[in-house]
Design the sequence.
């Protein structure tokens, strides 16, 4: 795609969604798929992966593939920012921006609405955490320089957006703090009718991308002291993200009761939700997290950390337990749920219905109509 790329659109769709990349099956990708199908929208994204598209149930001819970009910092994010800054897609009535780098498309596409999952956390609240985990002083200096400079352009880009939507009160506070902007909370969609309860089995389930901020090592430590409880970990990381190799060395010596399954098909994941004993979830100050809602839609209690949006999605003591981010605290909560895991089923399903995709679509419809 050349410097002044302009794609002339011949489409009946009124809405174009810009999304950073479509090569990982994550929460943001599920949000984009839900909106695209509900509003017959088109999607412009980089790194389009055919398998991910198939899992999301999106028609390939509704996607504009912007090409391949390596996401390794800092070069990848810088290239992504330039990519979305220069592309042009005239012919749509509205533009929805989803992700970090797609925000730069707001310069040439108006009116634009940003569905903000969070201000980029290694630019702001997790900046020190991410710099500290760099392996040497040179890498720490590069990380500090890049995040400091790029956060300046990030704050400039957000000014181009006419309206900001976000996925939780937790992120709403970050938007006010770092962007000095108001935002409207619309909880992400979960198709609750797809989830079901089949049994309360003999294993616990963990579902997350295997990134440091997910703190999967906390879960592993807790299960080391629970040899009679098994943990299955589902999730992976983008194949282009080679910077996580050192982190994944932590998973080389797993206890016999912990197994990492990697990325699995959606149907198998639904089956694991339906047959697990419960779900454990431990991210740092999570933005929202679809996993706790998916677990509750399956009738399963959630043992999570008492941080971030888990306080909005899990009812402590009713649909699970929210504890300090320490292995011993997790262990006690896991033991408590294991005594009678089925007792949480009814409350979990009732709570999950508040986040159903029909609620999301209706609220999004009102917002999009307001922008006409």
Sequence:
């Amino acid at each position: 795609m050349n410097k002044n790329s302009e794609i002339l659109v011949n489409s009946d769709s009124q809405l174009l969604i810009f999304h950073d990349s479509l090569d990982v099956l994550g929460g943001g990708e599920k949000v984009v798929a839900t909106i695209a199908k509900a509003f017959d929208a088109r999607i412009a994204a980089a790194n389009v992966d055919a398998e991910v598209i198939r899992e999301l149930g999106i028609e390939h001819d509704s996607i504009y593939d912007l090409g391949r970009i390596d996401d390794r910092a800092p070069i990848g994010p810088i290239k992504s920012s330039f990519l979305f800054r220069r592309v042009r897609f005239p012919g749509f009535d509205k533009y929805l921006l989803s992700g970090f780098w797609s925000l730069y498309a707001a310069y040439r596409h108006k009116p634009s609405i940003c569905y903000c999952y969070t201000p980029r956390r290694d630019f702001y609240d997790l900046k020190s955490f991410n710099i500290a985990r760099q392996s040497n002083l040179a890498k720490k200096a590069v990380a500090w320089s890049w995040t400091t400079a790029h956060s300046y352009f990030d704050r400039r880009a957000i000014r181009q957006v006419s309206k900001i939507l976000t996925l939780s009160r937790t992120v709403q506070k970050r938007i006010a703090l770092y962007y000095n902007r108001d935002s409207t909370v619309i909880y992400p969609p979960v198709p609750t009718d797809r989830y079901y309860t089949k049994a309360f089995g003999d294993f616990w389930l963990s579902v997350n991308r295997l990134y440091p901020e997910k703190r999967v090592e906390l879960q592993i430590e807790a299960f080391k002291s629970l040899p009679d409880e098994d943990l299955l970990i589902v999730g992976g990381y983008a194949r282009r993200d080679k910077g996580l190799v050192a982190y994944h060395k932590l998973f080389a010596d797993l206890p016999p009761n912990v197994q990492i399954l990697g990325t699995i098909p959606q149907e198998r994941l639904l089956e694991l939700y339906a047959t697990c004993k419960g779900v454990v979830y431990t991210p740092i100050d999570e933005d929202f997290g679809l996993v706790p809602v998916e677990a509750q839609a399956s009738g399963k209690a959630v043992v999570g950390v008492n941080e971030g949006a888990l306080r909005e999605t899990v009812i402590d003591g009713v649909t699970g337990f929210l504890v300090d981010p320490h292995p011993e605290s997790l262990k006690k909560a896991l033991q408590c749920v294991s005594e009678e895991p089925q007792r949480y089923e009814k409350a979990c399903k009732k709570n999950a219905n508040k986040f159903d995709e029909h609620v999301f679509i209706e609220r999004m419809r009102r917002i999009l109509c307001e922008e006409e």
